[in-house]
Design a protein that fits this description.
Elements lengths: L2 H5 L10 H10 L5 H10 L8 H11 L6 H21 L11 H16 L5 H11 L6 H11 L3 H10 L7 H7 L5 H13 L6 H10 L3 H14 L1 H9 L7 H12 L18
């Protein structure tokens, strides 16, 4: 199976050779950069995550001769394995994609790259977004610095990272009213993850009064996390929305509660097409 086929095949149907194909593509400097970026993106899927994949991704991130786009994607693709290690630990060696030693080594190298001002900003942002999925003490200051930046991209990175690190509730609440739609959406996601009750009225307003669709979709999920009972009432009306994306999101959110309206327990077939 080649890279093109892997891209169009669900990861659960990938053959055992998938990891080898991705490793070879990421390491082949004769391939077009676009293909290597695809390989790096696919290498972030948990079905192929292991120490060899992590080592190659980390090598790409730190290689100044590689393009910023490839380095950034390689950093982001380290995130799922780091998050799994942080969440599940290292007791079950058969399931853990990384040993504790490799995990700590990857995190230490990512911190070095983030602290190196010679590394391009877009790569450093990706490094922070990946490493924060296994929160460490240095992340709090890094997020504060990113949030204080006048650069919108850095601020967006900061708000994204706030979903993984505790202590930024006031910042999250402030960003629910941000002018930038991407920052606003990330704040909504973070509010839902941390179940910030203080965000409820704003989440409710976003859903009832409307906003950019990505923000509304995020608010639907957040509502179910923050106030499940109130969300059931709020989201029931959205399950019949003419916008199929919003209707499907409402049904899926309701399914995580006591069940969707009318007693059915799955999204209507027409919303799955």
């Amino acid at each position: 199976m080649d890279l093109k086929t892997l891209k169009t095949t669900p990861p659960w149907d990938w053959p055992e050779s998938a990891a080898r194909v991705l490793l070879e593509a990421m390491s082949d400097r004769n391939l077009p950069d676009a293909e290597r970026i695809v390989a790096a993106e696919l290498a972030g899927d948990f079905t192929v995550a292991d120490e060899q994949i992590a080592e190659v991704l980390l090598s790409v991130v730190g290689d100044r001769d590689e393009s910023n786009a490839l380095r950034s994607q390689a950093a982001i693709s380290l995130g799922p394995a780091l998050e799994y290690a942080d969440t599940m630990g290292f007791d079950d060696d058969d399931d853990a994609p990384l040993s504790e030693e490799v995990y700590l080594g990857v995190q230490a190298r990512l911190q070095e790259l983030f602290d190196d001002d010679r590394v391009p900003d877009d790569v450093r942002r990706s490094v922070l977004e990946a490493s924060v999925r296994g929160p460490l003490p240095w992340h709090t200051e890094a997020i504060e610095r990113a949030y204080a930046s006048d650069n919108r991209a850095w601020k967006l990175t900061a708000v994204f990272c706030m979903r993984y690190v505790r202590g930024f509730e006031p910042r999250i609440l402030t960003c629910l009213d941000a002018d930038n739609v991407d920052i606003r959406r990330q704040a909504v996601v973070a509010a839902g993850i941390w179940e910030l009750d203080a965000a409820w009225s704003r989440i409710e307003e976003i859903i009832e009064s409307g906003d950019e669709k990505p923000v509304v979709l995020a608010a639907i999920d957040a509502a179910a996390e923050i106030r499940p009972h109130d969300a059931e009432i709020l989201l029931a009306s959205l399950s019949d929305s003419d916008d199929t994306d919003i209707a499907a999101a409402a049904w899926e959110a309701l399914a995580t509660l006591d069940g969707p309206p009318t007693g059915r327990n799955s999204v209507p077939d027409e919303l799955l097409n």
